[in-house]
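Tutorial sheet, problem 5. The two components below are modelled jointly, 453 residues in total.
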Amino acid sequence: MVQEGELPTVAVEHDPDQLDDLTILRLTQEIKDVEASKNPLVGDFKPISVLLDEYKDATFRSKIKALGGGNAGYRPVRGDGNCAWRAFAFRYFELLSKLSKEDIEASSKFLLSRTGILDAAGYSETGYIDFVEETSNLFQKLPDMTPEQLVSEFNNAEVSSAIIVHFRLLAAAYIKTHADDYLPFIDDGEGADISEYCNRNIEAFSVEADHLALSALVNSMTTVDLGVVYMDRSAGDEAIVHNFFPTESTVEVDPPSLKIDLLYRPGHYDIFYK
Amino acid sequence: MDSQNTTPTTFSSHKMQDAPTAMADSHSVTKRLQSELMQLMMSNVPGISAFPVSDSNLCQWTGTISGPEGTFYEGLTYKISMTFPPNYPYHAPVIRFVSPMWHPNVDMSGNICLDILKEKWSAIYNVQTILLSLQSLLGEPNNASPLNAQAADLWDGNPAEYKRLMMTHYKDIGEINDE
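Model answer (structure tokens):
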């Protein structure tokens, strides 16, 4: 076991020339575990005023103050390249957990029916089934979970990583099945390849979500509106909010619509609570 | 091994052995690797194979790849090692050639430069897709960013010399197993 604040003593215990692959992987994991003990995958709610302690910059401070006091707050998510995905997925289930069992079931049924676009995009069932199953498991447990249990569930890397892959695949599948809509945004003038874009930016684990990824995620789920509060150095006393609305609305079943808010600071997303 | 081409690398051992400190593998990685092993055996794709080195450590596999037809590597078989991290499939396994491999994207220690094993790794990949990608890499190298510059130059520049040099490095898989 590695104590917090103490790095694994790689140099002392191991001659670098003698490291085999397994040892390298184990040492890498130990370093990550130390990091993880400092920053949970999904942290606890904090009032927005906590952010004021982090910033001296006047622009940031006025924007933070403009977000409001009272109940406004945020929930930090670990910055590991999956933050936007994890923040979105956690908030999705957190909002659902407050609804009736019937609404949770309707949402579960609907989201799992969206697996059809994975097939349409050419993903094989054996490739995605494990990840979709993890989402399905969480839906089943959700009505009986306490808020603390949901946080703890998302801090289990196996659970939240699987759900993140599921959501990443939904977004990638939406882009692949709506290539004409997305191609103009992907084209860098040297010929765009939808499949290559999805592989590099969305399917690849630990790659941050860009604007297109978030748009595709919202479109693929169809029941969620997403607001991203941009906390950056741009001029103005209030943070700009960028909204993502699904272009297709749900018709056949009727799961409740949700509104998710994320707080963006350059390079990182946390969950925002109004 | 050709010493003049040795790249500066920390990896020097190719021995397939059970590490004394076997990584505590989590339940889900074990389950996942068992199901991949089943799928691999059932699908029985010609030209590729892979299986765990021992029953006690499912995170260390050995595999073979046959060179694709119509390439320099046709008729040759290569041995690889696959080491799976505890957070597989969310992170890529470490794959290297155990057989000496003379190829633009493989260094003299068997390290492989292949995007899907690095920045393009996705959890939807599996042992089979890795083996097939490696097999196609043998016929379609990325000569723009080579680890072995000589091989990259000769690939188009002098195919006969490429084949000759490649064969001087080749070792039959039977010899590898005896090491």
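Marking note: The beta strands of chain A are 46-47, 73-75, 224-230, 240-244, 258-265, 268-273. Full credit if you identified this.
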